[in-house]
Predict the structure.
Amino acid sequence: MKIAMLARNPDLYSHRRLKAAAEARGHSLDILNTLRCTVHIASHRPQVFYNGAPIAAYDAVIPRIGASITNYGLAILRQFEMAGIWSLNESVAIGRSRDKLRSLQILAKHGLGLPLTAYANDPKQAEEIIKAVNGPPVVIKLIEGTQGIGVVLAETMSSAKSVIEAFRGANVNILVQEFIKEAGGTDIRALVVGGKVVAAMKRTGAPDEFRSNLHRGGSAQVIKITPEERSTAVRAARRMGLNVCGVDMLRSNHGPVIMEVNSSPGLEGIESATGKDVAGQIIDFIAANAEGGTTKTKGRG
């Protein structure tokens, strides 16, 4: 099988592991810099060019699109899909997951556990939305932030209002969420592949840090999740339409609540914490399911 990966940095742990796992199973995997891909649009002949030349025929594509180039990356991925190349995660599903507000609306519609969340455009409504999520304290986050960037814990009404007004004054879209105090600065990352949780870890924030992201100095350890947490992660992946994702959850007094569904989860932390070959399971899933022309989004605008 010939696989393409859309990724800007071939030296990242996750990308090296996926390439090694593919080659160990007799497949070939080319890492294509997303920004060096171009779309050529012509009737009945969807094509992607790489470094000025038409790309070779591929059986599958693994999108590892950075958050900073989401729109461009999804445009490239859609062209792969329209050419009938099977995608591990499809463009529509990735687009849903990258928009925090949209993803929470979808998950809420299907009854999955979420922290109380409010969204408003007018900074004059700051106090209203803070009270709507039983705050303060409240967590204020950018709608399109990643890896804990653009996430603020505001512990008083005055500080929360100041942060909201500052963000909105800069025309930045934000969500305001309840602070789950009982989570104690920890969360759970469940890695879902093909409708199954294949690995799970508990992440703990650095001292004096409420965010548990490993990129922010947090630590990780293997954890045994509950049947309810496992079901929540699987249902979240299915509702978002993602074959592979990391589902981040907090343990609240009323059960697991989903913080985020990540369509390009890193593998280093979870493979190190659990000792599991997650990259190999992803490649095995691709080999078992990739079939030309089967993308659900083929031909859609």
